[in-house]
C-alpha cells in the first residue's frame, strides 16, 4: 500500500500577501524560478485555470492538473479536474506512477484557499515588497494559517542582477 498523497504549496508572495496582478507574476526573480523548477519537477502540479492561463503550456517533467468549472476547457497536455476531490485523485494517480508521495499546489488564490487546510508543507518565497495586486494568498504572509505550521528552513537572498527584489525562502511543515 502506498503512502497517502501529501500536498505542498509553492508560493511567492509579498509582505502584504500579494501573489499576482492581471494574471501575471509581480516580480522577476530568477533564483525563485530555479527553486520552483527544482521543487516541482517530477511531481504532479495542481493549479487553477487562471494560473494555467498565465503559464500557457505544460511544464516539462511534471503532470499538470488544472481545476476549472468550465466543461469546455480542455487544453492539450494537461488533465482537467472539475473539483478538488477530482484533482487530488488525479494527482494521486500521477504521483504513484512517478513514484513520489506529494503533489505541488502552485496557485492561484482560490486553489491555495481550498488546499491550505490540508497541506502538509508550504514552500514560501517571501518577497520584501508590498506591490499593488488583485490576487492575494489567503490570510496573507503573517496570517493565522502560519500557526498551523512550523518553520524548518530559511534562506535570505538580496536583490541583484537576477532578482529585482530581496526575498527569503521559507519552508514550513504542518504541526503534528
UniProtKB/TrEMBL annotation:
Identify the enzyme class. Answer: oxidoreductase
Which reaction is recorded as catalysed by this protein? (6S)-5,6,7,8-tetrahydrofolate + NADP(+) = 7,8-dihydrofolate + NADPH + H(+)
Q: Which Pfam families match?
A: DHFR_1
Record keywords: NADP, One-carbon metabolism, Oxidoreductase
Q: List the pathway annotation.
A: Cofactor biosynthesis; tetrahydrofolate biosynthesis; 5,6,7,8-tetrahydrofolate from 7,8-dihydrofolate: step 1/1
- Please provide, in alphabetical order, the Gene Ontology terms of the cellular component aspect for this entry: cytosol
Q: Per its record, what are the GO molecular function terms?
A: dihydrofolate reductase activity; NADP binding
Is Aminoacyl-tRNA synthetase found in the keyword set? no
The UniProt record lists the EC number as: 1.5.1.3
**DHFR domain: residues covered:** 6-174
> What GO terms describe the biological role, i.e. biological process, of this protein?
dihydrofolate metabolic process; folic acid metabolic process; one-carbon metabolic process; tetrahydrofolate biosynthetic process
In the record, the note on similarity to other proteins reads: Belongs to the dihydrofolate reductase family.
Please describe what this protein does. Answer: Key enzyme in folate metabolism. Catalyzes an essential reaction for de novo glycine and purine synthesis, and for DNA precursor synthesis.
What name appears for this protein in its UniProt entry? Dihydrofolate reductase
